[in-house]
Write a structure and sequence with these properties.
- The complex is a heterodimer of chains A (112) and B (114).
- Helices cover 0% and strands 56% of the residues of chain A.
- Chain A has strands at residues 4-7, 10-14, 19-25, 32-38, 45-51, 56-59, 62-67, 72-77, 86-93, 100-102, 106-111.
- By secondary structure, chain B is mostly beta strands.
- The chains are: A mainly beta (112), B mainly beta (114).
- At the A-B interface, strand 4 and strand 5 of A face strand 5 and strand 10 of B.
């Protein structure tokens, strides 16, 4: 069935360093790939998304890249700050369907 | 959390009791969703609704029921038939359900059943 694999499950970086989280999807028809940030005890917040007609998208310190051939996409956070510490989820969505397939999450810790 | 509210934030029930979780949105979104989140796992879809008076089962609908009588409201009932109901429940909405649309999540309800 459809699947999204997310790695790593935990990631610790020093403040100011970059963090990269990777996801691989199985359904080649998927065309929408959002990333969510979830802080403890709260609902996920959409932080950036990308559609299959582009290869990269940036928003200040956050960027997402998409490789359709390899069916993987990545979240890049530069100049990390302690407030970036959270769980990050990737997801993939296929046109004509109702659902997102979520990855299992990455717990990012930014060490001051 | 945008215009989606979930109440209460914490809910405690005894085993064998049904419990209803509230979800309201003022975003004028057509589609609404219920997810369950367990530690170390991704979000799993329980039910979704594309329009008023219509809803479909997700991947883990057994032991749950929903209604969609109003566009802005999508309550979830956790019945006594749900074998392991303790979890964090998230409601979401999107402008449409045809994929490729942003889903916006509420703050969640943590249900504990003892």
């Amino acid at each position: 069935g459809e699947n999204v694999e997310q790695h790593p499950s935990t990631l610790s970086v020093q403040e100011g360093d970059s963090a990269v989280i990777k996801c691989t999807y199985s359904d080649s028809a998927s065309n929408y790939f959002p990333w969510y940030k979830q802080e403890l005890g709260k609902g996920p917040q959409l932080i950036i998304d990308i559609r299959s007609n582009v290869g990269e998208k940036k928003d200040q310190r956050i960027a997402v890249t998409l490789n359709k051939t390899a069916k993987h996409f990545s979240l890049h956070i530069t100049e990390t700050q302690p407030e970036d510490s959270a769980v990050y989820f990737c997801a993939a969505s296929t046109p004509g369907t109702y659902k997102y397939i979520f990855g299992t999450g990455t717990r990012l810790k930014v060490l001051a | 959390d945008g215009g989606i509210t979930q109440s209460p934030k914490y809910l405690f029930r005894k085993e064998g009791q049904n419990v209803t979780l509230s979800c309201e949105q003022n975003l004028n979104h057509d589609a609404m969703y219920w997810y369950r989140q367990d530690p170390g796992q991704g979000l799993r879809l329980i039910y979704y609704s594309q329009i008023v008076n219509d809803f479909q089962k997700g991947d883990i609908a057994e032991g749950y029921s929903v209604s969609r009588e109003k566009k802005e409201s999508f309550p979830l009932t956790v019945t006594s038939a749900q074998k392991n109901p303790t979890a964090f429940y998230l409601c979401a909405s999107s402008p449409s359900s045809g994929g490729a649309y942003e889903q916006y999540f509420g703050p969640g309800t943590r249900l504990t059943v003892t």
